[in-house]
Amino acid sequence: MRESRVKCDSCGRTAPRYKSAPVVRRVFGELRKVYYCISCAKHRGIKLQEAKEKVRRGPPRRRARRSQ
Ligand SMILES: [Zn+2]
């Protein structure tokens, strides 16, 4: 099975998707999903597993309820 490859948003290298950290970034007011390769993610203190969980849960939204 061929793994899909993604381009690292930071260094531009391509890496297998499972080896890169998905990060949701706001670009010009738009939420976009970008990927960082392992070394860039590490450099930014992003944990692969955490990043994947976060993206799976969806982009952060304003809560209808107030928590306070
Ligand atoms: Zn990179």
Q: What does this entry show, briefly?
A:
The chain is an alpha+beta fold.
Care to describe what's here?
The chain has helices spanning 38-43, 48-56; strands at 5-7, 14-16, 21-27, 30-36. It has one domain. It starts with a strand and ends in a 12-residue tail after the last helix. It has two helices and four strands. Helices cover 22% and strands 29% of the residues. The strands form two sheets. A two-stranded antiparallel ribbon has the order 1-2. It has a two-stranded antiparallel ribbon with strand order 3-4. Strand 1 and strand 2 (14-16) form a beta hairpin. The protein is of the alpha+beta class and 68 residues long. Zinc ion (ZN) is lined by residues 8, 10-11, 13, 36-37, 39-40.
What is the averaged pLDDT score? 86
Most strands sheet: 2 strands, antiparallel
C-alpha geometry: elongated
Query: How are the strands of the largest sheet arranged?
Result: 1-2
What is the string of helix and strand elements?
Answer: EEEEHH
**Which small-molecule ligands are present, each listed once?**
zinc ion
